[in-house]
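Page 47, continued from p. 46.
Same chain as before, 569 aa.
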Amino acid sequence: MAAAQLTTDALAEKHRSTLDQALDTIRTRAYWSPHPEHPKAYGENGSLDAAAGLDAYKALLDTRFELDQPGTDGWTGGEVSPYGPALGIEYPHADIDVLLPAMRAGMGAWRDAGAEVRALVCLEILARISARTHEFAHAVMHTSGQAFMMAFQAGGPHAQDRGMEAVAYAYAEQTRTPAAADWSKPQGKRDPLELTKEFTPVGRGIALVIGCNTFPTWNGYSGLFASLATGNPVLVKPHPRAVLPLALTVRVAREVLAEAGFDPNLVALAAERPGEGIAKTLAVRPEIRVIDYTGSTAFGDWLETHARQAQVYTEKAGVNTVVVDSTDDYKGMLSNLAFSLSLYSGQMCTTPQNLLIPRDGITTDAGPKSYDEVVADLAASVGGLLGDDARANALLGALVNPDVKARLEAAADLGEVALPSREVANPDFPDAVVRTPVIVKLDGSRKHWEGADTEAAYFSECFGPVSFAVSVDSTADALELLRRTVREKGAMTVGAYTTSAETERAVEEVCLEESAQLSLNLTGGVYVNQTAAFSDFHGSGGNPAANAALCDGAFVSNRFRVVEVRRQA
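Result:
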Protein backbone atom coordinates (compact mmCIF):
# COMPACT_ATOMS: atom_id res chain seq x y z
CA MET A 1 0.00 0.00 0.00
CA ALA A 2 1.32 3.44 -0.91
CA ALA A 3 1.78 6.20 1.65
CA ALA A 4 -1.59 7.91 2.10
CA GLN A 5 -1.87 11.59 1.26
CA LEU A 6 -5.59 11.48 2.01
CA THR A 7 -5.87 10.32 5.61
CA THR A 8 -8.94 8.66 7.05
CA ASP A 9 -9.44 11.61 9.40
CA ALA A 10 -9.31 14.07 6.52
CA LEU A 11 -11.78 12.04 4.50
CA ALA A 12 -14.13 11.75 7.47
CA GLU A 13 -13.97 15.46 8.19
CA LYS A 14 -14.76 16.24 4.57
CA HIS A 15 -17.39 13.61 3.75
CA ARG A 16 -18.88 11.94 6.85
CA SER A 17 -21.69 14.47 7.19
CA THR A 18 -22.56 13.99 3.51
CA LEU A 19 -22.68 10.23 3.97
CA ASP A 20 -24.94 10.67 7.01
CA GLN A 21 -27.27 12.92 5.02
CA ALA A 22 -27.39 10.38 2.18
CA LEU A 23 -28.19 7.59 4.65
CA ASP A 24 -30.98 9.66 6.14
CA THR A 25 -32.42 10.55 2.75
CA ILE A 26 -32.67 6.97 1.47
CA ARG A 27 -34.82 6.34 4.54
CA THR A 28 -37.04 9.43 4.24
CA ARG A 29 -37.18 9.48 0.39
CA ALA A 30 -37.14 13.30 0.55
CA TYR A 31 -35.57 15.57 -2.06
CA TRP A 32 -31.86 16.15 -1.54
CA SER A 33 -28.81 16.58 -3.73
CA PRO A 34 -25.29 17.74 -2.83
CA HIS A 35 -24.53 18.32 -6.52
CA PRO A 36 -25.77 21.63 -7.99
CA GLU A 37 -27.86 21.39 -11.17
CA HIS A 38 -27.14 24.90 -12.42
CA PRO A 39 -23.97 25.50 -14.48
CA LYS A 40 -23.35 28.86 -12.77
CA ALA A 41 -22.92 27.09 -9.42
CA TYR A 42 -19.47 25.91 -10.53
CA GLY A 43 -16.23 27.87 -10.68
CA GLU A 44 -15.30 28.26 -7.00
CA ASN A 45 -13.52 26.08 -4.45
CA GLY A 46 -11.46 24.35 -7.11
CA SER A 47 -14.32 23.49 -9.47
CA LEU A 48 -14.18 24.30 -13.17
CA ASP A 49 -16.42 27.03 -14.52
CA ALA A 50 -17.96 26.87 -18.00
CA ALA A 51 -14.95 28.22 -19.87
CA ALA A 52 -12.41 26.14 -17.96
CA GLY A 53 -14.51 23.01 -18.41
CA LEU A 54 -14.73 23.51 -22.15
CA ASP A 55 -10.98 24.13 -22.33
CA ALA A 56 -10.31 20.97 -20.31
CA TYR A 57 -12.49 18.97 -22.70
CA LYS A 58 -10.80 20.42 -25.78
CA ALA A 59 -7.40 19.62 -24.31
CA LEU A 60 -8.34 15.93 -24.34
CA LEU A 61 -9.09 15.85 -28.06
CA ASP A 62 -6.52 14.31 -30.43
CA THR A 63 -4.40 13.00 -27.55
CA ARG A 64 -3.48 9.72 -25.91
CA PHE A 65 -5.45 9.19 -22.70
CA GLU A 66 -2.78 7.95 -20.30
CA LEU A 67 -3.86 5.81 -17.34
CA ASP A 68 -0.65 3.97 -16.38
CA GLN A 69 -2.48 0.65 -16.17
CA PRO A 70 -0.66 -2.69 -16.11
CA GLY A 71 -0.81 -4.76 -19.25
CA THR A 72 -1.23 -2.00 -21.82
CA ASP A 73 -0.45 -3.65 -25.16
CA GLY A 74 -1.50 -0.91 -27.56
CA TRP A 75 -3.87 1.98 -28.16
CA THR A 76 -7.37 2.21 -29.52
CA GLY A 77 -10.05 4.81 -30.16
CA GLY A 78 -12.35 6.05 -32.87
CA GLU A 79 -15.14 7.98 -31.12
CA VAL A 80 -17.07 10.34 -33.38
CA SER A 81 -19.42 12.87 -31.83
CA PRO A 82 -23.09 12.53 -32.85
CA TYR A 83 -22.68 16.25 -33.55
CA GLY A 84 -20.08 15.48 -36.23
CA PRO A 85 -16.47 15.95 -35.10
CA ALA A 86 -14.15 13.04 -34.45
CA LEU A 87 -12.73 13.12 -30.92
CA GLY A 88 -9.38 11.70 -32.00
CA ILE A 89 -8.63 10.26 -28.55
CA GLU A 90 -6.67 7.03 -28.10
CA TYR A 91 -7.13 4.89 -25.00
CA PRO A 92 -4.89 2.16 -23.58
CA HIS A 93 -5.83 -1.33 -24.74
CA ALA A 94 -5.31 -3.91 -22.02
CA ASP A 95 -3.92 -7.42 -22.03
CA ILE A 96 -6.62 -8.86 -19.77
CA ASP A 97 -4.40 -11.71 -18.60
CA VAL A 98 -2.07 -9.10 -17.10
CA LEU A 99 -4.63 -6.54 -15.94
CA LEU A 100 -7.05 -8.81 -14.06
CA PRO A 101 -4.44 -10.28 -11.64
CA ALA A 102 -3.13 -6.77 -11.00
CA MET A 103 -6.66 -5.64 -10.11
CA ARG A 104 -7.06 -8.44 -7.57
CA ALA A 105 -3.79 -7.59 -5.83
CA GLY A 106 -5.27 -4.64 -3.97
CA MET A 107 -8.41 -6.40 -2.72
CA GLY A 108 -7.05 -7.36 0.69
CA ALA A 109 -6.13 -3.85 1.78
CA TRP A 110 -9.38 -2.50 0.35
CA ARG A 111 -11.35 -5.14 2.29
CA ASP A 112 -9.47 -4.44 5.51
CA ALA A 113 -10.13 -0.71 5.25
CA GLY A 114 -13.75 -1.33 6.18
CA ALA A 115 -17.08 -0.09 4.91
CA GLU A 116 -16.74 3.46 6.21
CA VAL A 117 -13.36 4.15 4.66
CA ARG A 118 -14.47 2.65 1.36
CA ALA A 119 -17.56 4.87 1.40
CA LEU A 120 -15.53 7.99 2.18
CA VAL A 121 -13.04 7.26 -0.60
CA CYS A 122 -15.95 6.81 -3.02
CA LEU A 123 -17.39 10.16 -1.93
CA GLU A 124 -14.04 11.82 -2.56
CA ILE A 125 -14.04 10.36 -6.08
CA LEU A 126 -17.52 11.75 -6.64
CA ALA A 127 -16.55 15.15 -5.21
CA ARG A 128 -13.65 15.44 -7.66
CA ILE A 129 -15.88 14.41 -10.54
CA SER A 130 -18.43 16.99 -9.43
CA ALA A 131 -15.78 19.73 -9.49
CA ARG A 132 -15.20 18.88 -13.16
CA THR A 133 -18.87 18.68 -14.14
CA HIS A 134 -18.48 21.17 -17.00
CA GLU A 135 -15.70 19.04 -18.50
CA PHE A 136 -17.70 15.84 -18.06
CA ALA A 137 -20.75 17.51 -19.63
CA HIS A 138 -18.94 18.10 -22.90
CA ALA A 139 -17.62 14.53 -22.82
CA VAL A 140 -21.16 13.18 -22.36
CA MET A 141 -22.62 15.53 -24.97
CA HIS A 142 -20.13 14.52 -27.64
CA THR A 143 -20.43 10.78 -27.04
CA SER A 144 -24.18 10.45 -26.41
CA GLY A 145 -25.69 13.22 -28.52
CA GLN A 146 -27.46 14.76 -25.54
CA ALA A 147 -27.95 18.51 -25.76
CA PHE A 148 -25.53 20.39 -23.51
CA MET A 149 -27.90 21.18 -20.65
CA MET A 150 -29.13 17.61 -20.44
CA ALA A 151 -25.56 16.31 -20.68
CA PHE A 152 -24.62 18.70 -17.89
CA GLN A 153 -27.46 17.69 -15.57
CA ALA A 154 -28.06 14.02 -16.37
CA GLY A 155 -24.40 13.27 -17.09
CA GLY A 156 -23.21 15.37 -14.15
CA PRO A 157 -25.14 15.98 -10.91
CA HIS A 158 -27.87 13.42 -11.55
CA ALA A 159 -25.31 10.71 -12.34
CA GLN A 160 -23.26 11.72 -9.30
CA ASP A 161 -26.40 11.50 -7.16
CA ARG A 162 -26.98 7.94 -8.39
CA GLY A 163 -23.39 7.05 -7.52
CA MET A 164 -23.72 8.51 -4.03
CA GLU A 165 -27.04 6.77 -3.53
CA ALA A 166 -25.35 3.45 -4.30
CA VAL A 167 -22.60 4.22 -1.79
CA ALA A 168 -25.19 4.95 0.88
CA TYR A 169 -27.05 1.69 0.25
CA ALA A 170 -23.75 -0.21 0.21
CA TYR A 171 -22.70 1.26 3.54
CA ALA A 172 -26.11 0.58 5.10
CA GLU A 173 -26.12 -3.07 4.01
CA GLN A 174 -22.53 -3.73 5.09
CA THR A 175 -23.04 -2.19 8.54
CA ARG A 176 -26.34 -3.97 9.15
CA THR A 177 -24.27 -6.72 10.78
CA PRO A 178 -21.99 -5.58 13.65
CA ALA A 179 -18.25 -5.87 13.20
CA ALA A 180 -17.92 -7.96 16.37
CA ALA A 181 -20.05 -9.65 19.00
CA ASP A 182 -19.56 -11.46 22.30
CA TRP A 183 -21.65 -14.62 22.37
CA SER A 184 -22.63 -16.43 25.57
CA LYS A 185 -24.93 -19.45 25.81
CA PRO A 186 -26.09 -20.44 29.34
CA GLN A 187 -25.47 -24.07 30.31
CA GLY A 188 -27.42 -24.32 33.57
CA LYS A 189 -25.07 -25.19 36.41
CA ARG A 190 -22.11 -25.40 34.09
CA ASP A 191 -20.12 -22.45 32.86
CA PRO A 192 -21.67 -20.76 29.82
CA LEU A 193 -20.33 -21.38 26.34
CA GLU A 194 -18.57 -18.20 25.27
CA LEU A 195 -17.22 -17.09 21.90
CA THR A 196 -16.07 -13.86 20.35
CA LYS A 197 -17.23 -13.39 16.79
CA GLU A 198 -16.01 -11.08 14.03
CA PHE A 199 -17.98 -10.31 10.86
CA THR A 200 -16.24 -8.92 7.79
CA PRO A 201 -17.90 -7.84 4.54
CA VAL A 202 -15.86 -9.35 1.69
CA GLY A 203 -16.22 -8.39 -1.95
CA ARG A 204 -17.06 -11.14 -4.42
CA GLY A 205 -14.22 -10.34 -6.81
CA ILE A 206 -13.71 -8.17 -9.85
CA ALA A 207 -16.83 -6.32 -10.99
CA LEU A 208 -17.40 -5.55 -14.66
CA VAL A 209 -19.33 -2.46 -15.70
CA ILE A 210 -20.48 -2.64 -19.34
CA GLY A 211 -21.25 0.92 -20.33
CA CYS A 212 -24.00 2.19 -22.62
CA ASN A 213 -23.90 4.76 -25.42
CA THR A 214 -26.76 7.02 -24.36
CA PHE A 215 -26.11 7.59 -20.64
CA PRO A 216 -22.54 6.47 -19.93
CA THR A 217 -22.29 8.08 -16.48
CA TRP A 218 -25.92 8.04 -15.32
CA ASN A 219 -26.29 4.35 -16.12
CA GLY A 220 -22.72 3.48 -15.14
CA TYR A 221 -22.21 5.10 -11.76
CA SER A 222 -24.70 3.05 -9.72
CA GLY A 223 -23.01 -0.25 -10.46
CA LEU A 224 -19.49 1.15 -10.39
CA PHE A 225 -19.81 2.73 -6.95
CA ALA A 226 -21.97 -0.05 -5.51
CA SER A 227 -19.26 -2.57 -6.36
CA LEU A 228 -16.32 -0.41 -5.28
CA ALA A 229 -17.94 0.51 -1.96
CA THR A 230 -18.60 -3.17 -1.18
CA GLY A 231 -14.96 -4.13 -1.63
CA ASN A 232 -14.72 -5.15 -5.27
CA PRO A 233 -12.23 -3.98 -7.88
CA VAL A 234 -14.10 -2.53 -10.86
CA LEU A 235 -13.22 -3.01 -14.52
CA VAL A 236 -15.04 -0.47 -16.69
CA LYS A 237 -15.76 -1.57 -20.28
CA PRO A 238 -17.28 1.48 -22.00
CA HIS A 239 -19.41 1.43 -25.11
CA PRO A 240 -16.95 1.98 -27.99
CA ARG A 241 -18.84 5.11 -29.06
CA ALA A 242 -18.87 6.56 -25.51
CA VAL A 243 -15.50 5.88 -23.90
CA LEU A 244 -14.44 9.35 -22.75
CA PRO A 245 -16.87 9.99 -19.86
CA LEU A 246 -16.05 6.66 -18.22
CA ALA A 247 -12.34 6.95 -19.00
CA LEU A 248 -12.33 10.28 -17.15
CA THR A 249 -14.15 8.59 -14.28
CA VAL A 250 -11.56 5.81 -14.12
CA ARG A 251 -8.73 8.34 -14.15
CA VAL A 252 -10.22 10.29 -11.21
CA ALA A 253 -10.90 7.08 -9.26
CA ARG A 254 -7.33 5.85 -9.74
CA GLU A 255 -5.92 9.18 -8.58
CA VAL A 256 -8.05 9.21 -5.41
CA LEU A 257 -7.32 5.58 -4.56
CA ALA A 258 -3.59 6.18 -4.85
CA GLU A 259 -3.73 9.33 -2.71
CA ALA A 260 -5.72 7.43 -0.07
CA GLY A 261 -3.02 4.77 0.08
CA PHE A 262 -4.76 2.06 -1.93
CA ASP A 263 -3.84 0.27 -5.13
CA PRO A 264 -5.08 2.40 -8.06
CA ASN A 265 -5.64 -0.78 -10.04
CA LEU A 266 -8.79 -1.34 -8.01
CA VAL A 267 -10.40 0.62 -10.86
CA ALA A 268 -9.31 0.10 -14.46
CA LEU A 269 -10.48 0.69 -18.04
CA ALA A 270 -11.04 -1.93 -20.74
CA ALA A 271 -11.29 -0.04 -24.03
CA GLU A 272 -11.77 -2.27 -27.05
CA ARG A 273 -10.51 -2.23 -30.60
CA PRO A 274 -13.09 -1.74 -33.38
CA GLY A 275 -15.16 -4.90 -33.75
CA GLU A 276 -13.32 -6.69 -30.93
CA GLY A 277 -16.44 -7.30 -28.83
CA ILE A 278 -14.60 -7.98 -25.58
CA ALA A 279 -17.71 -7.80 -23.39
CA LYS A 280 -18.56 -11.45 -24.04
CA THR A 281 -14.99 -12.54 -23.39
CA LEU A 282 -14.76 -10.61 -20.14
CA ALA A 283 -18.21 -11.61 -18.93
CA VAL A 284 -17.36 -15.30 -18.64
CA ARG A 285 -13.89 -14.92 -17.16
CA PRO A 286 -13.73 -16.67 -13.77
CA GLU A 287 -12.24 -13.54 -12.17
CA ILE A 288 -15.38 -11.53 -13.02
CA ARG A 289 -17.85 -12.02 -10.16
CA VAL A 290 -20.24 -9.08 -10.62
CA ILE A 291 -21.58 -7.60 -13.87
CA ASP A 292 -23.59 -4.42 -14.45
CA TYR A 293 -25.08 -3.94 -17.90
CA THR A 294 -27.40 -1.50 -19.62
CA GLY A 295 -28.42 -2.14 -23.20
CA SER A 296 -30.26 -4.50 -25.51
CA THR A 297 -32.45 -7.32 -24.28
CA ALA A 298 -30.60 -9.81 -26.46
CA PHE A 299 -27.22 -9.23 -24.83
CA GLY A 300 -28.73 -8.83 -21.37
CA ASP A 301 -30.38 -12.23 -21.74
CA TRP A 302 -27.08 -13.67 -22.98
CA LEU A 303 -25.29 -12.37 -19.90
CA GLU A 304 -27.91 -13.78 -17.55
CA THR A 305 -27.65 -17.16 -19.28
CA HIS A 306 -23.90 -17.51 -19.80
CA ALA A 307 -22.14 -15.46 -17.08
CA ARG A 308 -23.02 -18.06 -14.47
CA GLN A 309 -20.00 -17.34 -12.27
CA ALA A 310 -21.11 -13.73 -11.75
CA GLN A 311 -23.93 -11.87 -10.06
CA VAL A 312 -25.50 -10.11 -13.07
CA TYR A 313 -27.49 -6.87 -12.90
CA THR A 314 -29.18 -5.90 -16.15
CA GLU A 315 -31.27 -3.03 -17.46
CA LYS A 316 -32.68 -4.07 -20.83
CA ALA A 317 -35.40 -2.91 -23.21
CA GLY A 318 -39.01 -2.38 -22.29
CA VAL A 319 -42.18 -0.94 -23.80
CA ASN A 320 -43.24 2.05 -21.72
CA THR A 321 -46.96 2.79 -21.74
CA VAL A 322 -49.28 5.65 -20.81
CA VAL A 323 -52.98 5.00 -20.25
CA VAL A 324 -55.12 8.06 -21.09
CA ASP A 325 -58.55 7.68 -19.49
CA SER A 326 -59.55 11.22 -18.44
CA THR A 327 -58.00 14.41 -17.08
CA ASP A 328 -58.93 17.58 -15.22
CA ASP A 329 -56.00 19.45 -16.81
CA TYR A 330 -56.10 18.73 -20.53
CA LYS A 331 -53.62 21.43 -21.50
CA GLY A 332 -51.22 20.36 -18.73
CA MET A 333 -51.46 16.71 -19.76
CA LEU A 334 -50.67 17.50 -23.39
CA SER A 335 -47.77 19.75 -22.43
CA ASN A 336 -46.32 17.16 -20.06
CA LEU A 337 -46.59 14.36 -22.59
CA ALA A 338 -45.15 16.51 -25.38
CA PHE A 339 -42.05 17.24 -23.31
CA SER A 340 -41.71 13.58 -22.29
CA LEU A 341 -41.85 12.41 -25.92
CA SER A 342 -39.36 15.04 -27.09
CA LEU A 343 -36.63 15.04 -24.43
CA TYR A 344 -33.35 13.70 -25.88
CA SER A 345 -35.22 12.58 -28.99
CA GLY A 346 -36.91 9.80 -27.03
CA GLN A 347 -33.54 8.07 -26.55
CA MET A 348 -34.22 7.27 -22.91
CA CYS A 349 -35.13 3.90 -21.47
CA THR A 350 -37.98 5.68 -19.66
CA THR A 351 -39.54 7.54 -22.59
CA PRO A 352 -43.23 6.70 -23.17
CA GLN A 353 -43.85 4.77 -26.38
CA ASN A 354 -47.44 3.49 -26.33
CA LEU A 355 -50.24 5.93 -25.58
CA LEU A 356 -53.41 3.89 -24.99
CA ILE A 357 -56.46 6.06 -25.71
CA PRO A 358 -60.10 4.84 -25.78
CA ARG A 359 -61.56 4.92 -29.27
CA ASP A 360 -64.68 6.71 -27.99
CA GLY A 361 -62.56 9.46 -26.47
CA ILE A 362 -61.96 10.84 -22.98
CA THR A 363 -63.50 13.36 -20.60
CA THR A 364 -61.51 16.51 -19.84
CA ASP A 365 -61.88 19.89 -18.21
CA ALA A 366 -62.09 21.27 -21.77
CA GLY A 367 -65.03 19.04 -22.61
CA PRO A 368 -65.13 15.56 -24.16
CA LYS A 369 -62.34 14.81 -26.61
CA SER A 370 -62.42 12.08 -29.24
CA TYR A 371 -59.46 9.80 -29.89
CA ASP A 372 -58.66 11.75 -33.05
CA GLU A 373 -58.85 15.06 -31.19
CA VAL A 374 -56.53 13.87 -28.41
CA VAL A 375 -53.96 12.67 -30.92
CA ALA A 376 -54.22 15.82 -33.03
CA ASP A 377 -53.93 18.05 -29.96
CA LEU A 378 -50.91 16.12 -28.72
CA ALA A 379 -49.28 16.42 -32.14
CA ALA A 380 -49.95 20.16 -32.06
CA SER A 381 -48.44 20.40 -28.57
CA VAL A 382 -45.26 18.63 -29.68
CA GLY A 383 -45.14 20.79 -32.78
CA GLY A 384 -45.51 23.95 -30.72
CA LEU A 385 -42.87 22.87 -28.25
CA LEU A 386 -40.37 22.16 -31.02
CA GLY A 387 -41.45 24.83 -33.50
CA ASP A 388 -38.47 27.04 -32.72
CA ASP A 389 -35.27 25.39 -33.94
CA ALA A 390 -33.11 26.77 -31.12
CA ARG A 391 -35.44 25.34 -28.49
CA ALA A 392 -35.78 22.10 -30.48
CA ASN A 393 -32.02 21.62 -30.52
CA ALA A 394 -31.82 22.29 -26.78
CA LEU A 395 -34.43 19.60 -26.08
CA LEU A 396 -33.73 17.00 -28.75
CA GLY A 397 -29.97 16.82 -28.91
CA ALA A 398 -28.72 14.59 -31.73
CA LEU A 399 -29.60 11.04 -32.75
CA VAL A 400 -27.02 8.85 -31.11
CA ASN A 401 -26.44 6.46 -34.02
CA PRO A 402 -27.74 5.55 -37.52
CA ASP A 403 -29.93 2.73 -36.14
CA VAL A 404 -32.16 5.25 -34.36
CA LYS A 405 -32.56 7.24 -37.57
CA ALA A 406 -33.48 4.07 -39.47
CA ARG A 407 -36.15 3.12 -36.92
CA LEU A 408 -37.58 6.62 -37.02
CA GLU A 409 -37.87 6.57 -40.80
CA ALA A 410 -39.37 3.08 -40.84
CA ALA A 411 -42.02 3.98 -38.25
CA ALA A 412 -43.89 6.16 -40.73
CA ASP A 413 -44.84 3.02 -42.67
CA LEU A 414 -46.45 1.30 -39.67
CA GLY A 415 -49.70 3.29 -39.61
CA GLU A 416 -51.30 6.67 -40.14
CA VAL A 417 -48.85 9.42 -39.25
CA ALA A 418 -50.40 11.95 -36.88
CA LEU A 419 -47.21 13.96 -36.52
CA PRO A 420 -44.45 13.60 -39.11
CA SER A 421 -40.85 13.94 -38.03
CA ARG A 422 -38.94 16.90 -39.40
CA GLU A 423 -35.25 17.63 -39.73
CA VAL A 424 -33.84 20.37 -37.54
CA ALA A 425 -30.66 22.20 -38.51
CA ASN A 426 -28.08 22.79 -35.79
CA PRO A 427 -26.11 25.94 -36.67
CA ASP A 428 -23.27 25.08 -34.27
CA PHE A 429 -22.90 21.51 -35.54
CA PRO A 430 -24.03 21.23 -39.19
CA ASP A 431 -23.32 17.49 -39.28
CA ALA A 432 -25.60 16.68 -36.34
CA VAL A 433 -28.62 14.50 -37.17
CA VAL A 434 -31.53 16.15 -35.34
CA ARG A 435 -35.11 14.95 -35.82
CA THR A 436 -38.39 15.75 -34.10
CA PRO A 437 -40.58 12.86 -32.88
CA VAL A 438 -43.05 10.98 -35.05
CA ILE A 439 -46.47 9.98 -33.70
CA VAL A 440 -48.17 7.08 -35.49
CA LYS A 441 -51.77 5.99 -35.04
CA LEU A 442 -52.28 2.26 -34.51
CA ASP A 443 -55.34 0.09 -33.98
CA GLY A 444 -55.29 -1.50 -30.54
CA SER A 445 -58.51 -3.48 -30.86
CA ARG A 446 -58.47 -6.61 -28.75
CA LYS A 447 -58.45 -8.82 -31.84
CA HIS A 448 -54.95 -7.54 -32.61
CA TRP A 449 -53.37 -8.53 -29.33
CA GLU A 450 -55.40 -11.07 -27.38
CA GLY A 451 -53.92 -14.09 -29.17
CA ALA A 452 -50.88 -15.98 -27.98
CA ASP A 453 -48.68 -14.41 -30.66
CA THR A 454 -48.79 -10.90 -32.00
CA GLU A 455 -46.86 -8.85 -34.49
CA ALA A 456 -48.41 -5.52 -33.53
CA ALA A 457 -45.79 -2.77 -33.65
CA TYR A 458 -46.64 -1.60 -30.15
CA PHE A 459 -45.45 -4.91 -28.68
CA SER A 460 -41.82 -4.11 -29.51
CA GLU A 461 -39.56 -1.36 -28.26
CA CYS A 462 -38.88 1.19 -31.00
CA PHE A 463 -36.03 3.05 -29.33
CA GLY A 464 -35.86 6.67 -30.36
CA PRO A 465 -38.30 9.51 -31.16
CA VAL A 466 -41.19 7.20 -32.06
CA SER A 467 -44.53 7.03 -30.26
CA PHE A 468 -47.70 5.09 -31.01
CA ALA A 469 -51.15 6.51 -30.32
CA VAL A 470 -53.01 3.23 -29.86
CA SER A 471 -56.80 3.30 -30.07
CA VAL A 472 -58.39 0.80 -27.66
CA ASP A 473 -62.02 -0.20 -27.25
CA SER A 474 -62.18 0.89 -23.60
CA THR A 475 -60.13 1.80 -20.58
CA ALA A 476 -60.61 -1.76 -19.34
CA ASP A 477 -59.01 -3.02 -22.55
CA ALA A 478 -56.22 -0.49 -22.10
CA LEU A 479 -55.47 -1.97 -18.69
CA GLU A 480 -55.43 -5.51 -20.06
CA LEU A 481 -53.10 -4.42 -22.87
CA LEU A 482 -50.92 -2.64 -20.33
CA ARG A 483 -50.75 -5.76 -18.18
CA ARG A 484 -49.79 -7.97 -21.09
CA THR A 485 -47.19 -5.51 -22.36
CA VAL A 486 -45.47 -5.20 -18.98
CA ARG A 487 -45.61 -8.94 -18.29
CA GLU A 488 -44.26 -10.02 -21.68
CA LYS A 489 -42.07 -7.12 -22.76
CA GLY A 490 -41.35 -5.23 -19.55
CA ALA A 491 -41.53 -1.52 -18.80
CA MET A 492 -39.25 0.89 -17.02
CA THR A 493 -42.10 3.37 -16.59
CA VAL A 494 -45.90 3.46 -16.74
CA GLY A 495 -48.01 6.61 -16.79
CA ALA A 496 -51.75 7.14 -16.45
CA TYR A 497 -54.20 10.00 -16.58
CA THR A 498 -57.58 9.58 -14.94
CA THR A 499 -60.07 11.46 -12.79
CA SER A 500 -61.70 8.21 -11.68
CA ALA A 501 -60.66 6.81 -8.31
CA GLU A 502 -61.76 3.36 -9.49
CA THR A 503 -59.62 3.54 -12.63
CA GLU A 504 -56.68 4.92 -10.69
CA ARG A 505 -56.88 1.98 -8.32
CA ALA A 506 -57.16 -0.46 -11.22
CA VAL A 507 -54.03 0.97 -12.91
CA GLU A 508 -52.20 0.85 -9.61
CA GLU A 509 -53.20 -2.79 -9.13
CA VAL A 510 -51.84 -3.75 -12.56
CA CYS A 511 -48.53 -2.06 -11.79
CA LEU A 512 -48.28 -3.62 -8.34
CA GLU A 513 -48.98 -7.09 -9.72
CA GLU A 514 -46.58 -6.69 -12.66
CA SER A 515 -43.89 -4.73 -10.76
CA ALA A 516 -43.88 -1.56 -12.86
CA GLN A 517 -43.12 1.94 -11.60
CA LEU A 518 -46.18 4.17 -12.03
CA SER A 519 -46.64 7.94 -12.39
CA LEU A 520 -50.18 9.31 -12.14
CA ASN A 521 -51.61 12.53 -13.58
CA LEU A 522 -48.35 14.36 -14.19
CA THR A 523 -49.20 17.79 -15.59
CA GLY A 524 -46.42 20.01 -14.21
CA GLY A 525 -42.64 20.04 -14.25
CA VAL A 526 -42.09 16.40 -13.29
CA TYR A 527 -42.12 13.92 -16.18
CA VAL A 528 -42.65 10.19 -16.41
CA ASN A 529 -39.20 9.67 -17.93
CA GLN A 530 -37.33 11.35 -15.07
CA THR A 531 -36.35 9.79 -11.74
CA ALA A 532 -34.65 11.39 -8.76
CA ALA A 533 -31.88 9.60 -6.88
CA PHE A 534 -32.41 8.95 -3.16
CA SER A 535 -36.20 9.04 -3.71
CA ASP A 536 -37.33 7.34 -6.94
CA PHE A 537 -36.58 3.75 -7.91
CA HIS A 538 -35.40 3.41 -11.50
CA GLY A 539 -36.80 0.13 -12.73
CA SER A 540 -38.17 -2.44 -10.33
CA GLY A 541 -36.31 -5.64 -11.11
CA GLY A 542 -39.69 -7.35 -11.26
CA ASN A 543 -40.50 -7.33 -14.97
CA PRO A 544 -38.52 -8.20 -18.11
CA ALA A 545 -37.16 -4.65 -18.63
CA ALA A 546 -34.63 -5.04 -15.80
CA ASN A 547 -33.63 -7.55 -13.16
CA ALA A 548 -32.57 -4.86 -10.69
CA ALA A 549 -33.67 -1.46 -9.40
CA LEU A 550 -31.58 1.66 -9.00
CA CYS A 551 -31.17 1.68 -6.17
CA ASP A 552 -32.28 -0.56 -3.33
CA GLY A 553 -30.76 -2.95 -0.84
CA ALA A 554 -30.97 -5.85 -3.27
CA PHE A 555 -28.82 -3.91 -5.75
CA VAL A 556 -25.87 -3.88 -3.36
CA SER A 557 -26.29 -6.72 -0.85
CA ASN A 558 -25.19 -9.55 -3.14
CA ARG A 559 -22.00 -7.77 -4.22
CA PHE A 560 -20.38 -8.88 -0.96
CA ARG A 561 -20.63 -11.72 1.52
CA VAL A 562 -20.11 -11.59 5.27
CA VAL A 563 -17.33 -13.87 6.48
CA GLU A 564 -17.37 -14.84 10.15
CA VAL A 565 -14.40 -15.70 12.38
CA ARG A 566 -15.21 -17.32 15.75
CA ARG A 567 -12.78 -17.57 18.65
CA GLN A 568 -13.01 -19.28 21.99
CA ALA A 569 -13.46 -16.56 24.60
